[in-house]
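Sat 14:20. Reprocessing the chain from the morning session after the first attempt stalled halfway. Input below, unchanged.
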Amino acid sequence: MPRWSDGRRLEGRVAIVTGANGGLGSAAARALGREGARVALGARANRDIADAAVAEIASGGGEAHVGYLDVLEPDSIGSFVADTVDRYGGVDVLVNTAGRIDPADAVRFDAIDPDAWDRIFAIDVKGSLLMCKAVVPPMRERGAGSIVNFSGSYGNGTSQDNMVNSVAIAFCAAKGAVRAMTAALARDLAPAIRVNAVSPGPIAANWEADWGIPREHMEEAVAMTPLKRLGDPMEIGETVVYLASDGAGYMTGQNLLVDAGWTLMG
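Finished this time. Tokens:
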């Protein structure tokens, strides 16, 4: 029986979230946990943010844990997925938030480092592919599943030197590959497994430290959005819950732009 919006839309379901020590990954995990999912949070490096998400889920009566996960290492992926199945009995939802954050990817064309290009494609595209390959067998055993990939919205900025306005070629190319993979994978895995993507716009984060984006460039980008503000990570988390839930049961192969109208399409 489908579960509609009753505050426990994911009761009895098991969700894996990659990149769970990031702002968007931890927000997705907390949102899934609040709706009743048992959540396996994958983190490769520091796990303080992921641990805090687990504590929040547990305080609400939910189940969650953090495990080591490197989305580029098949052995790591296999162990993480197998442990999740052992703990909770299966996998119903995969959220691929793991992605590269590096100032080397926020540069103009002439400054692109081919090695950095390979790295963002490896983490964002191949990492998502490997995770999908690992979860599809247990999803098929359950008879259904939902995969949520993370793409990205490309801004309409007029300043070529403002990378947050998305003229960062490596980032756009990798996220575009995720969009294309999402659409193709949705066709391949239908009808049992749905595959969609979310494309966040400028979300509140430490842009200057993580990407080398100066404050004035952030302000310029925000001024170009109709809603005139940065997004809250939990707004992305709530979008993930929707895509994972039965409320989006008639949706597959889609990319939801959650970007304050930054990339309006008509």
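The mean pLDDT is 93.
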